[in-house]
Amino acid sequence: MPAQSSYEYHQIRDPDFPIIFHQETLNYEESGVLAHWHENIELLWFVDGRGAVVIDSVRVEAGPGELVMIDSNRLHRIFALSAACCYYCLIVDKAFCERFGIPVGEARLKTSADSGHLRGLYGAIASEMAQKQPHYKAAVLAGVLALLAELYRNYMDRAPGLFPNREQTNRSRMVRGAISFLRRSYQQPLTIDDICREVGFSKFYFCRVFHEATGKTVVDYLNFLRCENAQLLLASGRCNVRESAERCGFHNDSYFTRIYKQQIGELPSETMRKQG
């Protein structure tokens, strides 16, 4: 599933139902969900296969029945460890949580849990969302609050080193700043030196930390962003292959075709034909 932004803005369509809920399946061959962050709490329930979530450079592996908790504003990415990995994703609006005294912006949760009680609470939410019987939204919100109450009662991370030290904070800020800069500037000619000047760190340190946090080199990440946006232009039918390439920072047709095939898994012309 291609990521749509580095800082992921969540548009809550119904203010009276302030959650986002969906099911995802990732394949081992795919890149997975690129590193991003947002202010809302995100709760993942893995139901099939095995996957990994990297949260601020800490890798958390999970299998069927396990939950992974991602606190507010933590950089994270998700990828499959088995041929296919299926999980539910529940994102709860921060303001909604705070209205009921849930301290999502202040307290930290443990990153994972394997609990029958938590599975039951999460499973009830998934069932209500799937069946959509009368008054299901009321049932879902009640279930979400019950799940959050259980997590913040019994799964708070009170271990030493709960809050990141200055170096960890600087590393996370540097990677987030670089991703935001790439999102704003991918259409322009960019070098690693340009990005290092933007974030204010040496090339060696920046490249090493960026790879640890995102699982990609800076060049790979930039190429994926460019190809992802070229794919949108090609699929829209508004641009041909050369126009899409130029609008997304590629100035050599053969290079664009090779990188696009590498990143997207098909030729640009194949993407266009699908829309014909």
Write a concise keyword list for the protein shown above.
276 residues, alpha+beta, Jelly Rolls, Arc Repressor Mutant, subunit A, 2 domains, 5-stranded antiparallel β-sheet, 18% strand, globular, disordered N terminus
Model description:
With 276 residues, this protein is an alpha+beta fold. It has 2 domains: 19-154, Sandwich (Jelly Rolls); 166-274, Arc Repressor Mutant, subunit A. Helix content is 46%, strand content 18%. The chain has 10 helices and 9 strands. It has helices spanning 94-99, 116-131, 136-154, 166-185, 192-199, 203-214, 218-236, 241-247, 253-264, 268-274, and strands spanning 19-27, 33-36, 41-48, 51-55, 58-62, 67-70, 76-80, 84-92, 112-113. Helix 4 (166-185) crosses helix 5, helix 4 (166-185) crosses helix 6 and helix 7 packs parallel to helix 10 (268-274). The protein is globular and about 55 Å long. The relative contact order is 0.11.
Q: Report the helical percentage.
A: 40-55%
Please outline the major beta sheet: 5 strands, antiparallel
Any idea of the CATH class of the largest domain? Mainly Beta
Shape: globular
Strand adjacency order, main sheet: 1-8-3-6-9
Beta strand %: 15-25%
Count of distinct structural domains: 2
Low-confidence stretches: 1-5
Total number of helical segments? 10
- CATH topology description of the largest domain: Jelly Rolls
Summarize the helix and strand pattern as letters. Answer: EEEEEEEEHEHHHHHHHHH
Give the averaged pLDDT, no decimals.
Answer: 88
Number of extended strands: 9
Q: Report how far the terminal alpha carbons are from each other.
A: 23 Å
- At CATH level 2, the architecture of the largest domain is Sandwich
